[in-house]
Amino acid sequence: MEEDVYKTILKGNEPVLFKDRNSKFYGYAIPVKTEEQVQEAIQNLKQEHHKARHWCYAYQLGKTYKHWRANDDGEPSNSAGMPIYGQLQSFEVTNCLVVVVRYFGGTKLGVGGLINAYRTGAQMALEACTIVTKTINIDYEVSCEYADLNKVMRVIKERNLNVTNQVMEMRCAITISVREKEAETIHTVFDGIYGVKIKELED
Question: Which GO cellular component terms, listed alphabetically, does the Swiss-Prot or TrEMBL entry include (predicted)?
Answer without folding.
Answer: cytoplasm
